[in-house]
Amino acid sequence: MGALCSVIRFENLQELKRLCHWGPIIALGVIAICSTMAMIDAVMWYWPLDTTGGSVNFIMLINWTVMILYNYFNAMFIGPGYVPLGWKPEKSQDCMYVQYCKVCQSYKAPRSHHCRKCNRCVMKMDHHCPWINNCCGYQNHASFTLFLLLAPLGCIHASFIFVMTMYTQLYNRISFGWSSVKIDMSAAKRDPLPIIPFGLSAFAASLFALGLALGTTIAVGMLFIIQMKVILRNKTSIESWIEDKAKDRIQYYKTGEIFIFPYDMGSKWKNFKQVFTWSGIPEGDGLEWRVREGCHQYTLTIEQLKQKADKRVRSVRYRAVEDYSGACCPVTKGVKTFFTTPCTEEPRIALCKGDLILATRGLKHWMYGDKVLDSTTDAGMRVRGWFPRKCVEKCLYDSEMDQPLDGEKKNR
Ligand SMILES: [Zn+2]
Ligand SMILES: [Zn+2]
Q1: What is residue 142's three-state secondary structure?
Q2: How far apart are CA 282 and CA 269, in angstroms?
Q3: Burial class (CB in 10 A: 0-12, 13-18, 19+), 50
């Protein structure tokens, strides 16, 4: 029993380490500053507690803070849920339809992806979020999205308090001259006088908190809209990307296949209910998923395997022999390169001599492809774009070609 307790305590301590990262530190700092300033401003100057409205307002401010922190910590500590180590499909013949993760030493369940920051295969992985220092996936999708909804709402309430405090406090102090605006910060002219007058530092702190609150409202609000789209379509950001590539692949080979994304239940409400339930636990087990008619458990994983095979067939290895800055129209790479720059918004990638690139298509003087990244330092990143053909040369077939080329490559 004692041993078990110490194991639990040890695990909790490990989990607390998630807080020691710039993401949670900044996020919690912003929450602390905005909620504390809103409460101070409200109680001291704008809406004192001796009125009913003031009390309700104060309770609401506390309520926002508690609900925001509750969902934030849930998203962080419950986590996305990992594919059990050693997992494999129930029927052994289904193993051929799924990819194998060499790091986790188990098959990848449908919708799961290996996160190199978490170092585990994550169930229904959407993305790795630095702000919660954890992945957003199957188990914490609801709490994560609730946090994204509540944070802007709380910030709007706080912004209202900040603006009204500054407005009411400064209204009587501003005097307009012929060519100047004077603000009298000497004493409060409010009736009844607050215990602490609204001074310059209170003004500065309120203004700073207002900036933080408005910034958070916009930034987090946009993330909320993105996550709502993901939930209502039942299609994660990674899966949208796979679907795009499926269309691209089918068009390229003109196979006449029709790819149907299997997890969209066809009704926003049904998709919504899979994530948000009254119990707080999402539907299913995160490994087996409900699919729409005409699809089966492995519709998407088979498409992923096809894309993986296709990428190997279609891509050619190149090595950079010259540095390239990533400029759209590079001056030093020759006149033809300069004038034939691809007319597209697709990015250019900077190259350093010796870089490896997997090229998937090309023009006469330009090529498009993925930079082969060092998996130890650039976890989870993809660098793809255009570069001048002049800066690279084709790799001869060597033993390296036999190494796995995909992102799941083990550290050598
Ligand atoms: Zn894995
Ligand atoms: Zn992760």
Answers
A1: helix
A2: 14
A3: exposed
Residues in Cβ contact with 100 at an 8 Å cutoff, skipping those fewer than 6 apart: 106, 107, 108
Report whether 410 contacts 102 (CB < 8 A): yes
* Side chain identity at residue 24, one-letter code: P
pLDDT in tens, 120-163: 999 999 999 999 999 999 999 999 999 999 999 999 999 999 99
The DSSP H or E segment spanning 210 is helix 200-233
Question: What are the backbone dihedrals phi and psi of residue 26, each rounded to the nearest 5 degrees, phi first?
Answer: -65, -45
Q: How far is the CA of 28 from the centre of ligand 1 (A)?
A: 30
Yes or no: say if 49 and 55 are a contact pair by the CB < 8 Å rule. yes
Structure tokens at 273: 């209910």
Dist. CA 406 → ligand 1 center (Å): 13
Known catalytic membership, residue 129 = yes
Kindly provide the residue ranges of all beta strands, DSSP E only, lying in 52-169, ordered along the sequence: 100-101, 106-107, 113-115, 120-122, 127-129, 134-136
The DSSP letter of residue 21 is S
Catalytic, out of 34, 129, 135, 136: 129
Which candidate, 283, 261, 288, 263, places its Cα nearest to that of 273?
Answer: 283
Going from the Cα of 383 to the center of ligand 1, the distance in angstroms, rounded, reads 21
Each residue's pLDDT tens digit, 215-259: 999 999 999 999 999 999 999 988 998 898 888 888 888 888 888
- Integer CA distances (angstroms), 386 to 55, 148, 161, 251, 390, in order: 60, 35, 49, 21, 12
Protein residues placing their CB within 5 Å of the ion ligand 2: 115, 117-118, 128, 135
Ligand nearest to the CA of 129: 2
pLDDT digits (tens, 9 = 90+) for 199-221: 888 999 999 999 999 999 999 99
